[in-house]
Amino acid sequence: MTDPVNAPVADPVADTGAALFVGIDIGTSGVRAVAIDAAGRQQGQGSAPLEPPRSDGAARRQSPALWWTAVHTALAALFAQVAARRVQALAVDGTSGTLLATDAGGQPVSDGWMYHDASCADEARLLQRHAPAESAAQGGSSPLARMLRLQHLHPRAARVLHQADWIAGRLAGRFGASDTHNALKLGFDPVSETWPDWMDALGVRRDWLPRVQRPGTPIGPVAPQLAAAFGLPPQACIVAGTTDGVAAFLATGAQHPGDAVTSLGTTLVVKVLSSAPVFAPAYGIYSHRLGDLWLAGGASNSGGGALLRHFSAEQMAQLTPRLRPDEPTGLGYYPLPAPGERFPVHDPHWPSRTTPRPADDAVFFQALLEGVADVERMAFERIAELGAPYPQRLFTVGGGAGNSAWSRLRARRLGCAMATPAHEQAACGAARLAREAMARRACGQAEPPAQSARGDEDRARRARDDAAPARRGAPA
Questions:
Q1: 38 in Cβ contact with 32 (< 8 Å)
Q2: Entry pTM
Q3: Stretch(es) of the chain classified as CATH 3.30.420.40
Q4: pLDDT in the model for residue 451
Q5: CATH classification number, 255-419, choose in 3.40.50.2300, 3.20.20.80, 3.30.420.40, 3.90.70.10
Q6: N or C, which end of the chain has less CB nearby within 10 Å?
Q7: 31 φ/ψ angles, rounded to the nearest 5 degrees
């Protein structure tokens, strides 16, 4: 059977000579590479699986060599479908908070410490004492806590990089750059666009910190060895990337204040574009800068995981035709997979409310869907209370997005227009980032400014980065 991901795309335009823009999405279980054209149409895609991260207690680790091999494989599959010579720019997104320590040439000296690694409890408690409550660096699985542990374990290392930073560095043949989205949970202040002074009290090695640029800022041309291996033009540009969550948002086409995206997966994740940032650490709400706007969001424990406590995926598919979205059950559920909620209610003991249970499974299933929709509405209302707009246009991605009856039910309960995403794959969001970077360059617009905490230190670090040769250890 042909792999549907790596199979040729219908009606390919590989020979038209039109420009292409590539996005690379690095997930927990695999890598996907997508090419879009200047109009945003997808022209090809390739993928490669990743072995699951290794678990040891609260530690979650993965070899960076696996990431690079998977990226190489996914790009090879993509360029079997489209002409690599047409590529103008590439951008990478990675799992938010995954990082590793490297030497000056970008060679890993540690495994990748994954986004959900919670093995640095002592360092996380230290952060509680010194980091502001509103900092996204707070939390049991804090990337900054992992950096502090890596400093102790690898004192001779030269820097710490996020997953997307390291892959972009491999593509460009130079290391040391990050983006404002990946850097947020490492402690970067997105408002002042600096590495803040409070980090000094923690003993953070500033020479380890990457220089931070806004997503879409050019890092440099593709490394000559890679250009030759894939047939890429030598001037193809590697641009600063983003996190997987923001890339998924960008993929939908949301772009105006009041545009929002809900991800209906195992959990319920909501994001909305705002003219001003919103930070509410008690609810896990933080904001990413997107150009002149801000992307505010949070995640509830409700969602698909709560539904699966009561019905299998097959049972839900069988019950869906019996739903009556225009006839509410009025049961007022708050479905959770287990006690405890983080957003829109912050209560570690918050109970799941799924009673009384009707005798008819279809009515019960509808009440559960209504409950998740009510949590979604409450989540957007909570963000609106804190200063962001309530959604005017809502895009939906994730496993629940294809349920049209649920979409009708949600539209009634949320009271906003439902929009169809341009794309649902995070890799398409990264590709759009690459495309917009080249569009700015073509129009003669200034590139987004690079950010620095201390100008002299960052200029010295940049000179070191440009002078350091990139070492190669995995396939070119």
A1: no
A2: 0.85
A3: 20-246+427-467, 255-419
A4: 54
A5: 3.30.420.40
A6: N
A7: -120, 140
